[in-house]
Amino acid sequence: MKRKSIKLRLQTSSRNSVNSTCIYCKESKSVSNFDREHVLPEAFGKFKEALVLHNVVCRECNQYFGNTLDNKLARGSMQGAIRYLRGIKSLQKFRDVDKKRVKLSARAPGEPTLRQAEFVKTPEGEGLAFTPGIDYHSISSNKEQFVSLESLERGSWNESDDIDRQYPVILSYRGEAQVLERIQQALAKLKLGIEILDTISKTEAGQRVLVVVDAVIEDVLLYRAIAKIAFNYLTYKMGRDFALQPIFNRIRAFIRYGSVSTILVKKRPRMKISGDCEEAARRRGHIVAIELAEDSTTIVGFVEFFGVMTYKVTLGRFGQLAIPISAGHYFDVKYKQILQMDAIRPSHGLWIPR
Known about the structure:
The protein is an alpha+beta fold. The chain has helices at residues 59-67, 69-75, 78-85, 149-154, 177-189, 220-238, 240-243, 249-257, and strands at 19-21, 28-30, 34-38, 52-58, 102-107, 115-122, 125-130, 133-137, 144-148, 170-172, 210-215, 265-268, 272-273, 286-292, 298-305, 309-317, 326-332, 337-343, 350-353.
């Protein structure tokens, strides 16, 4: 028997020919134009088996979020500032915060006023030091103002006429003679005839000082970043097709373009977690959850940072919803693990980690 050979040409599809639709801009693009997206930004901790979205957020939207919303949440908010105090970021990295939105100050024992401070590396480890510069009484604001040595040397400060000379100008520096000399040289360039009269205080290494972080807690950019976390989680639990439904166009537009009122995000009391009976036992991680509201038509999201700052996000409203929605995850900052959570019924709003 003769054997016949038949040549077949297989039709193969390259990865670039497969399309996906972005949950934010709703544009259909090749999957090669998509990046993975963490439900909770990695800036708030790296966890085992992190919750990640694949092929649902396009690269353009992802980069936009990284440069704007995620950046402001991490570096320009109180939520982001707490990362340094909880050990997620090194204290020395505090210098990378947006200084227009986050300020660190301290008060030494016996001193009446706060002065700008910074975290530094010491022989004993990470510590706090007063930022080199000058404190002066402002004529225009009738308040104490601070100018860093960096601003003085860079020439970006030009408010010397605003110094009220009835009050002393206080020089802050860390004891190094060269730093004091640099401050004097910078003041001389500004033609400020300031004479050093005396050392009014000296903070010794190891002394306990009052530390104050003054940072933005709520504004439109932060609300949008928080809403994105909740919407990411909704997509993670319910899928891309569910998130692309028109009922979510309002929250989608708010996150991506800043349109729509901020009423979609509201600050609320901390979430109730089973087992957290006392303040001392309060879990200090993050929580992300979604739930069908009591009206049985509204899907809401909850985002809580470090167990202290909680927000409720109105994600969308159905005319009538037949399927129950209730899901949550607890991000354990200490042990770097993520625990699934269940809502306890009928006690509305009480969650228990599995």
